[in-house]
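Friendly challenge for the regulars: who can give me the structure tokens for this chain first? No prize, just bragging rights.
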Amino acid sequence: MHIIALLTFSYFLGALPFGLWIAWKVKGLDIRTVGSGNIGSTNVGRICGRTAGTGVMILDVAKGYLPPVIGGAMGLPSHWLILSAMLAIIGHNFSIFLRFQGGKGIATSAGALLGISFPVGLLAAGLFCGEILLFRYVSVGSLLAAVALPFGMMHFYPGDRYRLAFSIAACIMAFYKHRANVVRLFKGTEPRVVFGRKSVEQSLDTADSATAVQGSIEDA
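First reply, four minutes later:
Bragging rights claimed.
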């Protein structure tokens, strides 16, 4: 019963669309209809402000982090903790509250990684942040971190097939959810992060703003 309760809790916690709710509370709008249409922290931050975006990021990370930590406190074996983390990501990406639509799962995956394999989580976060600082592509940073997951698991947890399976599944899911970004990267139309307070206004005021907004930065 404890295992079933944890797994059920993990999915439904992951499925909570905090980005949608916070955007509605702050701006009174459906975040799925503006910007990139994504419910993640980047789109919320661009449309509703940095504070709202940061709040969404913290909550989305917590969705992935809490299930394995709670499972660990219950004394469950590691494979159940890993499954609970994966269900939280699946819940975020395919939310029952959004007709099985959702975000891209990067923030929730980061939280899940920190919960089940802290060193690999730090590695992925470092790669993501480094790419953003150097090249300013959120999508590339997300995919770079995703590709690093299996290698990180093999290095820090050699022989742990459950963690390796988790990392491979998370990587595949990240690429699936970012498939539109990959197409734009090959076309050279993927937008970069614009640092500064006027980034949103500048994006909206350009002549090709419709294209820029439709293909704007999408995260978790």
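The chain has one domain: 2-199+206-214. DSSP finds twelve helices and no strands in the chain. Your move, everyone else.
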